[in-house]
Fold this sequence. Notes:
This protein has about 240 residues and is α+β, with helices and mostly antiparallel strands. The chain has one domain: Penicillin V Acylase, Chain A, CATH 3.60.60. Helices cover about 20% and strands about 40% of the residues. It is built from 4 helices and 14 strands. The longest helix has 17 residues, at about 150-170.
Amino acid sequence: MCTVTFIPVKGKIYLTSNRDEKQTRLDAISPAVYESDAGKMLFPKDAEAGGTWIAAHENGNAIVFLNGGFKAHEPQPPYRKSRGLILLDLIEGATPYNSFIAIKLNKIEPFTAIIWDEHHLFECRWDGEQKHTKQLDAHRPHIWSSVTLYDEDVSSRRNLWFENWIKKNDHPSMKEIMHFHQFTGDGDTHNDLRMNRHGKLFTVSVTSLLINSKEAIMEYLDFKNNMQTKGSLILEKSMVIR
């Protein structure tokens, strides 16, 4: 939930997330398809709370979360619900953006939601007190770094790495995107895309989600267990992504 990129390529989009967590957190469950009254969803599952940080719905919508709103905050538990379960509440809605507008977030820890909703891209933030929304240009790439781990200077540096990489890779494959998420940086292990802060807090996984006109495909690279897995979900109707 800590570094996210959105990359549109003709006919498809990629959402990719680096999950930075404490070493003591339970290992996540690899991506699988889950079914609810709202339809089928593809996501990796947090073994502690049962939620997730990235998910796709068979209707073609998707969401990825980052920790924090606009600035680093001091956690003030107990919270009413985990953010990963809030993500599932949103993705189950017919239009996740409208779900974000409607949902009550009192006693929920701050987060940033990147929402792909009916071919529109939204950045939705909850700062602990109020919601903030912004529609983004879905025809160009974007990168986000969690405000809880990376200050403004580090985020700006990461943005520059991304901009320089995109100039050389304007139509990347999933493999190339996952390589970027694993190996980009300047040797500062505290702040490289794959980060490690003394083995106590580090990037535990990279998840890349591809959505095209017919299906959602998710590649999951688990660093803690040296394992790579893949999941897929057929969309309920064919769509054209421009």
